[in-house]
Design brief:
The chain has helices spanning about 1-20, 20-50, 55-65, 70-85, 90-115, 125-140, 140-155, 160-165, 165-180. It is mostly helical. It is found in: Cell membrane.
């Protein structure tokens, strides 16, 4: 009986994905996100440099990238070199506006896709969207870096190692660790 309801639900989901064009929206979002990664990274690096916290980020990056071994130092220096070399004067006003436009257009596409999926008919006002986009752009990297750091540091904790040693938890931990980044 439960199996039949699951099959009905899965069939309805597949039908909705096909009829609503959700697979095309997902493809569009993936493509847009990939195109916006570099401008988003450049904007984040620019903000780090403007606020002067790029020197405080080095220990954090070293901790996050520790699982890479010797390459962690190299990659940290490359990232911080990129942040240091971002020249606001060379970037200029037009370049900064293009970066911001790219980020906003990506967030707008995400909003449109979610509004379509959840059948939202009335959009939020311009002021609300601007505050939402600004908060996501400025605070968005924090949970991403936190998730990366948590994923990288969890296996080294002694309590977690003891828990992993017990079989059902070890398998669940590694399965969860592979699904957590998704």
């Amino acid at each position: 009986m439960i199996w039949r309801s699951w099959c009905t639900w899965a069939k309805a989901l597949i039908g909705a994905v096909r009829s609503e064009g959700l697979d095309y929206r997902a493809t569009s979002l993936a493509y847009t996100t990939l195109l916006a990664i570099v401008p988003g990274l450049a904007f984040s690096c620019l903000l780090l440099k403007v606020f002067g916290v790029n020197d405080q980020v080095e220990p954090f990056l070293l901790q996050i990238l520790a699982p890479l071994g010797d390459k962690a130092n190299e990659l940290t220096k490359a990232i911080l070199g990129f942040v240091t070399n971002v020249n606001v004067g060379v970037l200029g006003f037009v370049g900064l506006m293009v970066l911001i436009y790219t980020i906003i257009s990506m967030l707008e596409k995400i909003k449109t896709a979610f509004n379509h999926i959840w059948r939202v008919s009335q959009a939020r006002g311009l002021a609300r969207r601007a505050s939402d986009y600004l908060s996501v752009s400025l605070l968005g990297p924090v949970p991403i870096f936190s998730a990366i750091g948590l994923t990288a540091s969890m296996p080294r904790a002694s309590a977690v190692r003891r828990l992993i040693a017990q079989e059902p938890f070890g398998t669940l931990f590694y399965f969860g660790g592979s699904c957590f980044p998704i």
